[in-house]
Here is the input.
Amino acid sequence: MTTTTLTQFPVESDRTKSSNPVLGRLSDVWAMTRRNLVHISREPMQLSDVTIQPVLFTVLFIYIFGGGIPIPGGGSYTDFVLAGLLSLNLVTSTMGTAVGLSTDLHEGMIDRFRALPMWRAAVLVGRSFADLMTACLCALIVALTGLAVGWRPDASFASVIAGFAVVLFFAYSLSWIVACVGLNSKSPESATSFGFIVLFPLAFVSNAMVPSQHMPGWLQALVNWNPVSAVTAAARDLWGNPNPSSTVQAWPMQHPVEASLLWSVVILAIAAPVASRFFRRRTTE
Amino acid sequence: MAIPASTPMIEVEELTKRYGDTQALAGVDFSVEAGTILGLLGPNGAGKTTAVRILTTLALPDSGHAFVAGMDVVKSPGEVRRNIGVAAQDATLDPLLTGRQNLVLVGELSDMGRSASRNRARELLGQFELTDAADRVLKGYSGGMRRRLDLAASLMTRPPVLFLDEPTTGLDPTSRQRVWDAIRDLIADGVTVLLTTQYLDEADALASRIVVVDHGRVIAEGTPLELKEASRGAHLEITLATENPVAVAALSPLVGGKVQVSPDGRRLSAGVDITTGLATSVVRALDQAGVIVDNIEVRQPSLDDVFFSLTGGHIADGGESDDLEDAVSEVQSSEATRNPDNRQFEGINA
Here is the structure.
């Protein structure tokens, strides 16, 4: 490419036809992921829900509520609540996916993407990958804050990592449900309100912050079958931290790791195709 | 892919498209020969953007056919996308990326590969005089810089067919000139271009053929010269120092139609044919009649005037005497729509 001469008709345009369609799709996804990561680096305050919020929640729960909450079966509240804080932060931060997608659809850029010979779903998948990376950052900050205030896992390193992975996988699946909401919302602002109406109750009506044993019976049933409870209990088990739910006679509480993975796989298997259908519908005229 | 030079690179047949209650396209036909530039001229809401959206695979037609580089835009959108570059009238670049990052992203998503994308981006940034701003975030770009970058983005893959949707709307004269120069270079390089514009002078300056659309239909087609021939008439407007009944009588022999007088009697207007020394004769005639003139204006045929002469129906219905009022109000309303601040995008929002 030495001169600025443009295509001499009938020469084909400059694209190197991807020999492998899968590789082509992966490279589209990677390009879109990087674009979203650059966005974050431009406006780092957007990250406050995965950086400042975890620190704030940890300090709030451990120092303000912690002293008043006894753990059935013994153990410190700090060791108990850290898995819950991880779930709470990761579940609520999925809101970013809805806001991000809604913003993408409302900016003119989507038209350029649609006129390029790219894999269209890369817009969705790239978004979800970038959000998974910020979720990993969030998990790291929760872990560091926890260690600073006295949280101590009692398990092998691999098991501790597995605990984080279970929660991150669930948050990733959940982000596809949230993506469906973002793809159907009229504006990025209305996508935000979904977070408060659905994600906060989902995170709080669980065993994440307090043991479920003290709750009324009808609520206990709800809590025991809330996927967030299974995910939180799984992390507690894998970290060797106090897990009062292990005495609860409900299948997800008896098999938290299996239940978490099952929930995550089922949600992903349903929500991802639905999201791509919504995306196709939103971008067809 | 050897295409004989006579094959149209863009072909549109009986295209229709409706958005809700708006018939954006009501059966449009045109074609663009390889290596030429076609100006699609029309006011806002005429259907220009809708046509471009269908041709660039962003919208599906309700009926009719459209082919780009010999491929059906509905049946093989992927192949069409491999052969086109698009610079839309909306900002279609990422405001949070730098100019360079935007170009590289477009290149990578077009399967160009990373290093080829980088090289091509560097080349285009230089060509469009954006090298100094290349690593600044787009938010800080001026309108003219954004349009140049948009144009650069559409050229990343050296596409044989290029769509430019109102590339200079809202630009200052200097930026406009630079965009024009860039488009002229493209024509010289043999790219086929479809350019939409609201400005007759732009179509005149760049296009080898012009298709005029209004209300979703093609109302005229021809070379710029042919179209201007069809609209030789101009408007004469005179402002008097004081009201003077003699003025109309003095003016009438010089103008073709009837002279319109404003309610305060000070402003006179009439349709005229452009002739040499027209303004001199008018002033002289009025002076001899003892009329004192504050201001005289001969308005050259504008795009609006082209529309009047082409759409006939708008003017002919009410007879000559009522025409001017209609014409003036239409000129005003169409000038209002030119204002980029209250301009509405056709089709997309409908």
Notes: The longest helix of chain A spans residues 157-184. Confidence is low (pLDDT under 50) at residues 1-17 of chain A.
